[in-house]
Amino acid sequence: MGEPINSFPSGLLPDETSPEWLNKGDNAWQLTAAAMVGLQSVPGLVILYGSMVKKKWAVNSAFMALYAFASVLLCWVMWAHQLSFGDKFTGIMGKPNVAVTQKYLLEKQYDKMIPVADYVFYQFAFAAITVILLGGSLLGRMNFYAWMLFVPLWLTFSYTVGAYTIWDKGFLSRHIIDFSGGYVIHLSSGVAGFTAAYWVGPRNPSDREHFPPNNIIHMMAGAGFLWMGWSGFNGGSPLAANEITALAVLNTHLCTATSLLVWMFFDLIFHSKSSVIGGVQGMMTGLVCITPAAGVVDTWAAMFMGVLAGSVPWYTMMILHKKSAFFQRVDDTLGVFHTHAVAGVLGGLSSGMFAKPNLIRKFYKTEHSESQQGPGLLYSIVNANEVVYAKDGFKQMGYQILGALFIAAWNVVVTSLICIFVSRIVDLKMHEDDLDIGDDAIHGEEAYALWGDGQRHPPLRSLTPKFPAFFRRV
């Protein structure tokens, strides 16, 4: 008989092809989930932002999202991932370090059966979409060069603190229920976006009064990337392809569909028309609301949260915003405060109310975990005969409120300091004449050639100070 054929490449033995701890199914799902979250930003939010604004702002809005995605990735692997998930440094931040070495990236991710590289990329996609969502408050007037400085600064000093505090080793990490980022991602982006919008200032009056989307069909396509990509957004949080993952994905879509329909019905009742933009907003609030609770609540609770997500933010955006002098003073272009901050708080508080004990144990209380997340308040009331158990539910709701207050306060303060710092280097807002022109003045490009055979008129001179002004002003 001939020599046995070696079926392994490069002479590797079977036990050398992959480590014993690696679960290839979990690994494949995690890489898929991370890619889905990335697709929510590029092309999802790139298309959504580029379509949801006036034609003259389509290029600038889409490019703000694209720049942020690329910038965050480099910052993430160079220092921000370790600030968020590295060795303990303070109660709110890890030690800065790189996440690019083979020794680090090919290790096992804590008690999961995937390599650290999966987790680094997955968490990068989370960080990137947070910054891009924040940018939705600033469309149509922020100086692009100010945005270039703002993105890495906000990622470093704001996002990493929320991630470390709630998801890793921070002082709230053992107590808060935040399955996929209702607080870390959505509350922070909503509050920070609103705060930055205050410092940047409003659009010009004509834009603020009349700001129709330039392409509603493309807007819906971008929204579709967000909705379908949310399967990875929430489904990736268990870092495994298990039963919690399946429940999280189902709950995500149930809450979202319910919220969209509720928002649509409110539009029909009070405005006699079902708005496509309203439907997209209702979709968004449903996705945001379920995020902190996706894998720890029953399906009936997910649908009830959809009712809350489609009604409360609808009221704050469509009624309260128009009546409140406070909201009118701040020009939040896409209403990110309502769709993300309000919906994120709703989701966080609903997590404290509806989190089911056995699901909490499955997700948080693993063999190596010291987490102390309690049952939802509803279940503690149902089991009120067990005194300690009842107290746990009220305690959990207290932690959910504390977490919301901390994230909101930190983002108001840090975002304000960053905006003040950037304003000392380059103008936060475009020049008034450039605001009238839009994309062609800022980038020398326009989204659509709508006359002749694609010819363009002579380039318009931009009056907004360019990035070299950074050096002159320093």
TrEMBL record:
Cross-referenced SUPFAM superfamilies: Ammonium transporter (SSF111352)
GO cellular component: plasma membrane
Signal sequence range: none
Presence of the UniProt keyword Membrane in the record: yes
InterPro entries: Ammonium/urea_transptr, Ammonium_transpt, Ammonium_transpt_CS, NH4_transpt_AmtB-like_dom, RhesusRHD
Keywords, ordered alphabetically: Ammonia transport, Membrane, Transmembrane, Transmembrane helix, Transport
Ammonium transporter AmtB-like domain segment(s): 28-448
Regions crossing the membrane: 28-50, 57-79, 119-139, 146-167, 179-201, 213-233, 245-269, 276-294, 300-321, 333-355, 401-422
Location of the protein in the cell: Cell membrane
Similarity comment: Belongs to the ammonia transporter channel (TC 1.A.11.2) family.
Protein name, UniProt field: Ammonium transporter
Source organism per UniProt: Lactuca sativa (Garden lettuce)
